[in-house]
Amino acid sequence: MDWLNTISRMFFDLDAMVEVLPQLLGVGLLNTLIISIAATILGVVMGMVVAVMGISRSKWLRIPARIYTDLFRGLPAILTILLIGQGFARLSQSVFGPSPYPLGIIALSLIASAYIGEIFRAGIQSVDKGQGEACRALGMSYSKSMALVVVPQGIRRVLPALVNQFIAIVKDSSLVYFLGLLVSERELFRVGQDAAVLSGNLSPLVMAGIFYLIITVPLTHLVNYFDNKFRTGRRRPTAPTSGLKEVKELDAASPLITGSNT
């Protein structure tokens, strides 16, 4: 069973896991959440703009939105991160300082906005056209009906897909380490990788993977729960009713009906 002991020492060394745990909690987890949440917020704002442009009646808005979506959905995430992080490094230094942290967030938000824009567009277009026609019949303008009626309904329908996109951003945040983050800005993967290199053991990387699972697995089940809720709606169970009451009412009314006929 030497192979079993080798695997245990290489991947499940408790001492190495416990040693890296404070850095994963205090540095890695915090930065992963900051990167993911910031990129998601920017991606939602930009994605809504892309979605509105994509369903616009003007081709001057639709075509750029389509090109933007195809571009950032078609490129690999790591390529986009490197192009943004290295291509704008000099500009970033004059604005944000030597840290590539903001450029990583911007790159992830550009990727996320392309996917979120498609999610919003699909949700908005899934709303029945009668909703917009009813708004116009009430005298509402196109923009007002979209902002107050159509878009809110579309967003509600795509909430599970948005949470799925956040999960994808959490996992893609591990690619930001290619930009060379500062020690205090390392995310989960970079902390685990550095500890694995120093210790010559992969257990710190396994521990980092456990943290990713702690974030993503509950969110995945939460998505499934809300998805089922939105699909089935709120159904209140009602007790079965007997037909005996209706039969008694008919029996009571039958003499009156017979007497009126005679």
Describe the structure.
The mean pLDDT is about 80. The longest helix is centred in the N-terminal third of the chain and has 41 residues, at about 15-55. By secondary structure, the chain is mainly α. It has helices at about 1-10, 15-55, 60-75, 75-85, 90-95, 100-125, 130-135, 140-155, 160-170, 190-200, 205-230, 245-260. It is elongated, with a radius of gyration of 28 Å. Helix content is about 80%, strand content about 0%. Helix 2 runs antiparallel to helix 3.
Residue fraction in strands = under 5%
Largest sheet features: none
How much helix is in the residues? over 70%
Low-pLDDT residue spans: none
The count of helical stretches stands at 12
Main features:
262 residues; mainly alpha; 12 helices
Question: Which helices and strands appear, and what pairs or packs with what?
Answer:
Blueprint: H1 2-11, H2 14-54, H3 59-74, H4 77-87, H5 89-95, H6 101-126, H7 129-137, H8 142-157, H9 159-172, H10 188-199, H11 203-232, H12 244-261
Helix pairs in contact: 2-3, 2-6, 2-9, 2-10, 2-11, 3-6, 4-6, 6-8, 6-9, 7-8, 9-11, 10-11
